[in-house]
């Protein structure tokens, strides 16, 4: 069984540019969440999507946006990149509405903004 | 705002030692507490705890939750070099929408180094 897959694995962008990160959840998982992990810190919640609707948003500026597609895959978009956006971006998928709320994480996308 | 504090932030032990990692939390409408191990990129799931006083075990790892005092511990006995990693504690609050899981609030993580 394929786990959560994210692409690309690494990315280098220049300040002011735009970036799109992609995530495919585990088959059967309908909920996708995005996290930002800055070096030396724990992951910080950005968005959660379920059934193509935004179900939660963390404390991130409007430069960050996301969407979920009919096949439950998801994209995270970041506009007007800043140096501080350099981080590991993690996608997690889970089965919603059950007691087993364990979230499975992808390998992440390492974004470097120069 | 939900809050998770882990301690110590880092520790170094020798193979065979036993370690205890701490996690305290403040969360509205607590649902579960989860422990993850992060070696390079993807955090991998260790335990999910929802009830106080019930120890969960997996090999040399065990964890317990105290919902009255709002903390959890993760124990690792007979540590091995392969246990070297960042251990993340996260709490989940009950979701406001049915059919979706709520966000996880993570602590900063505990960096464990196990020396041969």
Give a structural overview.
The complex is a heterodimer of chains A (114) and B (116). Chain A is mainly beta and 114 residues long. Chain A has strands at 5-7, 10-13, 19-24, 31-37, 44-50, 53-57, 64-68, 74-78, 87-94, 104-105, 109-113. Chain B has 116 residues and is mostly beta strands. Chain B is 0% helix and 57% strand. Chain B has no helices and eleven strands. Chain B has strands at 3-7, 10-14, 19-26, 30-38, 44-49, 56-58, 61-66, 71-76, 85-93, 104-106, 110-115. In chain B, a hairpin with a 5-residue loop joins β4 and β5. The relative contact order of chain B is 0.34. The mean pLDDT of chain B is 91. The A-B interface holds A 4, 31, 33, 35, 40-45, 48, 50-51, 55-56, 58, 88, 90, 92, 94, 96-97, 99-108, 110 and B 4, 6, 31-32, 34, 36, 41-45, 48, 50, 88, 90, 92, 95, 97-109.
Q: Which labels suit this protein?
A:
heterodimer, A: 114 residues, mainly beta, 7-stranded mixed beta sheet, 4-stranded antiparallel beta sheet, 11 strands, 50% strand, globular, B: 116 residues, 6-stranded mixed beta sheet, 5-stranded antiparallel beta sheet
Summarize this entry quickly.
The complex is a heterodimer of chains A (114) and B (116). Chain A has 114 residues and is mainly β.
């Amino acid at each position: 069984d394929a786990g959560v897959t994210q692409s690309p694995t690494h990315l280098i962008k220049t300040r002011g540019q735009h970036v799109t990160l992609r995530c495919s959840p585990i088959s059967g998982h309908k909920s996708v969440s995005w996290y930002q992990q800055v070096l030396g810190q724990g992951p910080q919640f950005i968005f959660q999507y379920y059934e193509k609707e935004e179900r939660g948003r963390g404390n991130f500026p409007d430069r960050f946006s996301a969407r979920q597609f009919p096949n439950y895959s998801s994209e995270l978009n970041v506009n007007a990149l800043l140096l501080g956006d350099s981080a590991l971006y993690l996608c997690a998928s889970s089965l919603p509405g059950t007691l087993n709320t364990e979230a499975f994480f992808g390998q992440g996308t390492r974004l470097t903004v120069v | 705002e939900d809050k998770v504090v882990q301690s110590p932030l880092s520790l170094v032990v020798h193979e065979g030692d036993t370690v205890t990692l701490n996690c305290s939390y403040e969360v509205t409408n607590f649902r579960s507490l989860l422990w993850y191990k992060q070696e390079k990129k993807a955090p991998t799931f260790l335990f999910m705890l929802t009830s106080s006083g019930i120890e969960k075990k997996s090999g040399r790892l065990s964890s317990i939750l105290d919902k009255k005092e709002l903390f959890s511990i993760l124990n690792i006995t007979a540590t091995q070099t392969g246990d070297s990693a960042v251990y993340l504690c996260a709490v989940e609050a009950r979701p406001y929408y049915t059919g979706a899981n709520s966000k996880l609030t993570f602590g900063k993580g505990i960096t464990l180094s196990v020396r041969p």
